[in-house]
Design goal:
The complex is a heterodimer of chains A (about 110) and B (about 110).
Chain A (H helix, E strand, L loop, with lengths): L3 E2 L4 E5 L4 E7 L4 E9 L6 E7 L4 E4 L2 E6 L4 E6 L8 E9 L7 E2 L3 E6 L1
Parallel strand pairs in A: 2-11
Antiparallel strand pairs in A: 1-3, 3-8, 4-5, 4-9, 6-7, 7-8, 9-10, 9-11
Chain B lengths: L2 E5 L2 E4 L5 E8 L6 E6 L5 E9 L2 E4 L6 E6 L2 E6 L8 E8 L5 E3 L3 E5 L1
Parallel strand pairs in B: 2-11
Antiparallel strand pairs in B: 1-3, 3-8, 4-5, 4-9, 5-6, 7-8, 9-10, 9-11
Classes of the chains: A mainly beta (about 110), B mainly beta (about 110).
């Protein structure tokens, strides 16, 4: 049973536009959520996170929104740049889990010039 | 800042051969360490985690094992590789702020 779901395997947007990456989760015990970016043949790099006590966190061009009632979070990238093209993973953890992360399958974002 | 060294970057091994992937961490002490695998068409699956020397927890039944002989060393092993062990293996360390620092990964192809 997949506890973190990224239902869109891929997304294509034009440079300068907004990219919206979505993630749904089923485990109500998750209290910390993260987004990672991954280029081919490299390890993922941490992008942004949000605690369950917040509904929005912003860092430069990246904003994460959390809707706890819907068990849904999204990553907004504005404006999108060609260098943003990568696989984006949503991840979640439970308090007291020794920071074990449960990852989604990822969404491949392609930003076209 | 934390740095994770992971090697080798790529590995091609025949079925039935042994495996040893090594991960070392710099810039922190007594970290929580993790081995993840990314298989084709799947997300990142947690295989093992360790909260200290000699302490290993396995998340999924499998053909692999892990060991932590030193505080900053985490090893992933197998006595006999299966075709299904192919994938991209990532070592990770718990980072400040709750995120992980990942190593650069090992692409393992079992033939």
């Amino acid at each position: 049973d997949q506890q973190v779901k990224q239902n869109s395997p891929s997304l294509s947007v034009q440079e300068g536009r907004i990219s919206i990456l979505n993630c749904d989760y089923t485990n109500s015990m998750f209290d910390y959520f993260l987004w990672y970016k991954k280029y081919p043949a490299e390890g993922p790099t941490f992008l942004i996170s949000i605690s369950s006590i917040k509904d929005k966190n912003e860092d430069g061009r990246f904003t994460v929104f959390l809707n706890k009632s819907a068990k849904h979070l999204s990553l907004h990238i504005v404006p999108s740049q060609p260098g943003d093209s990568a696989v984006y993973f949503c991840a979640a953890s439970e308090e007291g889990s020794n920071y074990k992360l449960t990852f989604g399958k990822g969404t491949l974002l392609t930003v076209n010039p | 800042s934390q740095t994770i060294h992971q090697w080798p970057a790529t590995l091609v091994q025949p079925v039935g051969s042994p495996l040893s992937l090594e991960c070392t961490v710099e810039g922190t002490s007594n970290p929580n360490l993790y081995w993840y695998r990314q298989a084709a068409g799947r997300g990142l699956q947690l295989l093992f985690y360790s909260v200290g020397i000699g302490q290993i927890s396995s998340e999924v039944p499998q053909n692999l094992s892990a060991s932590r002989p030193q505080d900053r060393q985490f090893i992933l092993s197998s006595k006999k590789l299966l075709l299904s062990d192919s994938g991209f293996y990532l070592c990770a360390c718990e980072g400040l702020g709750g995120g992980y620092t990942f190593g650069s990964g090992t692409r393992l192809t079992v033939v």
